[in-house]
Specification:
Layout (H helix, E strand, L loop, with lengths): L13 H8 L20 E8 L10 H12 L1 H4 L3 E8 L3 E8 L24 H18 L12 E5 L2 H13 L17 H10 L1
Antiparallel strand pairs: 1-3, 1-4, 2-3
């Protein structure tokens, strides 16, 4: 079941889409690092949640689509390799490795109304393509209400110790769903809080 990835030229920053669709919309604070080049080589930890944190992925068919689309990222982007990942009931955790591109190519970081299409192979473009492709297939199942949150969490992985810690968190996440901060009924424990505090 190949995922229908959208041509990259159609992807723009979240801020630009908000401006085009609703000029009166209040400005949101960007969660991106100001001035950081999100197409540069490196490892990135991302968390992408469903809209309203609805547990769509409790349906095995929906979960399978998200898993396949995540793994097929490498088929649609050169110089991109998925690392550890997991599909939880209402979100996806994954590590993405970008390699082979170290030239400057600045990605939008939150100023509204000043952006063109996202640079191919940048982290925002990859996440946008994944969300679009998976949404299309999931809605074909008749689940018209499926949607992702407009934004996502990202963290630049800076060293091996951090990478190993994040990998272990991803592996342990299914067994620790009751403590997951993205679980609407969850109660984050000290281990959960310490992990996220450690990311900064």
């Amino acid at each position: 079941m190949p995922c229908p990835y959208t041509p990259l030229s159609r992807f723009r920053s979240h801020s630009e889409r908000e401006t085009v669709s609703d000029p009166s919309k209040r400005r949101r604070r960007s969660i991106r690092l100001q001035g950081y080049d999100y197409s540069r080589s490196g490892l990135y930890f991302v968390t992408i949640c469903t809209k309203g944190r609805v547990t769509f992925f409790e349906d095995a068919r929906v979960k399978t689509i998200a898993e396949i689309c995540w793994q097929e990222i490498t088929d649609h982007f050169t110089g991109v390799t998925p690392d550890e990942s997991v599909v939880m009931p209402n979100h996806v955790h994954g590590i993405v490795s970008l390699h082979g591109r170290d030239t400057a190519c600045r990605v939008p970081t939150g100023r509204i109304g000043t952006f063109g299409p996202l640079p191919p192979g940048s982290l925002p473009a990859i996440v946008g393509a994944f969300k679009s492709a998976s949404t299309r297939l999931i809605r074909q199942l008749g689940i018209e209400g499926f949607a992702w949150q407009p934004r996502y969490y990202e963290h630049v992985v800076r060293n091996d110790a951090s990478l190993n810690r994040i990998r272990q968190y991803i592996r342990d996440n299914p067994a620790r769903w009751a403590f997951d901060r993205d679980n609407p009924d969850g109660r984050p424990d000290a281990t959960e809080r310490e992990f996220w505090r450690g990311l900064g």
